[in-house]
Request: fold
Amino acid sequence: MSLLSTSLLGTQFTNPLLNASGVWCRDKVELDALNASQAGSFVTKSCTLEPRTGNPEPRYFSTPMGSINSMGLPNEGYQYYLDYASQHDYSHKPLFLSLAGLSVADNLKMIEAISKANLPAVVELNLSCPNVPGKPQIAYDFDAMQTMLEAVTQQYDKPFGVKMPPYFDFAHFDAAAKILNSFPQVAFLTCINSIGNALVIDTESESVVIKPKNGFGGIGGDYVLPTALANVNAFYQRCPDKRIIGCGGVKTGEQVFQHILAGATLVQVGTELHEEGPGVFARLLTEVTALLERKGYKSIEEARGKLRTL
Ligand code: SIN
Reply:
């Protein structure tokens, strides 16, 4: 076993890094670039039943501390990603398929097709998109989350994961974990999606910086690292039978290591991938390798969840 290799759902990963769904994964050109990159796996753009153009532009804005976006799920429709997944060489690299149906029925239709295709692709069900006007984040409505998971687990018999929004209160960590733990088929949690409905203001123009939702959008990057680490660790502690995929604020190998200490098995990169392109993975791997070696670790598994408290 090499220093960075890890496993999830019985699949081996050469390293823990992958893109956050939504970044560099909308079409074949971008997905092929991830496949060719040093990322250990990759995930497709969260898809809907039908293709979507998404929200009006500008809908993504970089700031010195990260990013704000309100993309609105622009995607090619699930069949496009299913076709991509059916042509993918899984012996080269594992692939996740991200689903963000606009209703229970839409998710069930996509799940039915994925089930029939019987591919090694692993489903990440997005319960946390903050950017579709009129569609609240499912995982902020615990009854809706329960209903969605009941429906999906009745239709689908493979293990899958869920992309979670950030929570900010222990009562919500507890309530969400209770629901998630009642579905053994939910094998992993991706924590976190962007912190939804933030507002970035440009002082000179006295204006918002993105057009949709009057400037409200999900933030990522430096803004979210401590919240992401908290959510990774909160669910790592509360969901001992599930794996956690960390997502949020990863800019250097140090933050990859911090996610692993908090309990992450895999680590996604969003804002920094958008800034730097798929070359970011090689840099992060070099940095996290140097850090692990300096600290005397023989594998990342040794570090996972080993966060100390005072
Ligand atoms: C988007 O397309 O608006 C982003 C998706 C997400 O945050 O889940």
Observations:
- The chain has ten helices and 16 strands.
- The first strand starts at residue 6 and ends at 8.
- Residues 22, 46, 71-73, 126, 128-131, 193-194, 218 surround succinic acid (CB under 6 Å).
